[in-house]
Amino acid sequence: ASGGTAPYTYQWMPGNLSGASQTGLAAGTYTVTVTDANLCTGDTTLVISSPPQIQVNTLNVTGTDCGSSTGAIEISVSGGSGNYSYAWNPNAGSSASIQNLAGGNYTVVVTDLANGCTSTLQINVPTLGGPVLNNPVLTPPLCFGASNGSIQASAGGSTPPYQYSLNNGPSQASGLFSGLAAGQYTVTATDANGCQNSLNVTVTEPPSLTLNSIADVQICSGDSVQLTASASGGTAPYTYAWMGSTGTSSYWAAPMVSSTVDNTVTDANGCIASDLVTVTIVPCGNIEIFIPNVFTPNGDGQNDTYGIQSINALTQEAVIVNRWGEVMAVLNQLNQSWDGTTANGNEALEGVYFMKYRLTGLGNDEQQGHVFFHLVR
User: Fold this and answer.
1) Alpha-carbon distances of 40 from 2, 19, 34, 250, 254, rounded to whole Å
2) Which CATH fold topology does 132-203 show?
3) Domain ranges of the chain
4) How far is the C-alpha of 64 from the C-alpha of 158, rounded, in Å?
5) pLDDT given for residue 27 in this prediction
6) Domain 288-375 is of which CATH architecture?
């Protein structure tokens, strides 16, 4: 103060402080009143300003992969004088961005070099668990036993780009694996930091396509027969083809001679199964038989064997025994005959023998009976 009559007294408001000078004041507006020895007064107003408050914000955080030191932090600072220092704990650098960090918490203290003002911020660097494999898209093979299935894999959750491998095979940038048969597979994804994750998947396949046709049949010459078939497995619907012509599951056959009819079925995926039906032309009419009552197995080429001669028979069952009941021959084939020898190849003795027989034809037609006959040498 000057003028007036010394000495002077000083009063500062707010704060009710005294003295000609003050320190440690906060920013704000102050009024100081001066009083001299004659109680004359004078006052003035003072404004103390402060720089803008320091603001510290996280700009970018990069996590670490599978325990590696690949994390990074970048912060932005505003306010204050614009001239700052940085102190990180744990000590990882002295700038606004730090790299090569392990996962965990980091604290930064930013100091305004012009006035010593500080601001503190804590930031977490996450530890990532490596790539995360999403549920893959599985495409089964079109046919049972085929190798045209596929797996489409994709990964995320860590540091791209990703490489993919199947069953520990070569790595590739694409997650698509094609040309696969049904089975168990292991898909592995590797990120840019070498971290890996695997997923086991199962590629399925449609059941085996099967064509079941009617059993082989026998018909009379000039007759026809309806052949039928049914498909199972594969992928419905089915398309049938008899003798190369597309049709339904049934087919009328009227061959002039014994024939084999081929049938194929194709399912919705183009898978094919086939089957064969044999249609045999057989004699029709009643069974007629001729059974001799003697034969002479002496090797002269005349009447050397013994058997049943038949017409229109389809099956035959016959057994020949001697007078003691010992089996000499079993004739279970049409036109089969006995040459007059025993089971061990010796010549059978001359005498009377017994044969029991049964023959069957179409429908319920059959001939059965027994006969005694002579073996003469």
Assistant:
1) 12, 17, 8, 131, 143
2) Immunoglobulin-like (2.60.40)
3) 9-48, 55-128, 132-203, 210-282, 288-375
4) 8
5) 85
6) Sandwich (2.60)
- Residue 61's pLDDT is what? 94
Q: Please check whether residue 308 is in contact with residue 289, taking contact to mean a CB–CB distance below 8 angstroms.
A: yes
d(CA 56, CA 118): 10
Given this chain, do its domains 210-282 and 288-375 carry the same CATH topology? yes
What is the SS3 assignment for 90? coil
Count of residues in the chain: 377
Confidence of residue 173 (pLDDT cuts 50, 70, 90): very high
Distance of CA 53 to the CA centre of its chain: 60
Burial of 336 (0-12, 13-18, 19+ CB in 10 A): middle
For residue range 126-163, what is the model confidence (pLDDT) as tens digits? Answer: 887 789 999 999 999 999 999 999 999 999 988 899 99
The pLDDT value given to residue 193: 83
Tell whether the model's pLDDT for residue 283 goes beyond 80.
no
Q: Residue 70: helix, strand or coil by DSSP? A: coil
Q: Summarize pLDDT for 176-204 with one digit per residue, the tens.
A: 999 999 999 999 999 988 889 999 999 99
Please report, for residues 142, 186, 203, the alpha-carbon distance to residue 137 in angstroms, rounded to integers and kept in the order given. 15, 14, 10
Instruction: Specify whether the CB–CB gap between 131 and 160 falls below 8 A.
Output: no
Tell me the CATH class for 55-128.
mainly beta
CATH fold of 210-282: Immunoglobulin-like (2.60.40)
Contacts 24+ apart (CB under 8 A), 149-152: 149/178, 149/179, 149/180, 149/181, 149/182, 149/203, 149/205, 150/176, 150/177, 150/178, 150/179, 150/180, 151/175, 151/176, 151/177, 151/180, 151/185, 151/187, 151/201, 151/203, 152/176, 152/177
The pLDDT score that the predictor gives to residue 246 is: 85
| Mean pLDDT on 218-233 | 91
Better-predicted residue by pLDDT, 61 or 282 = 61
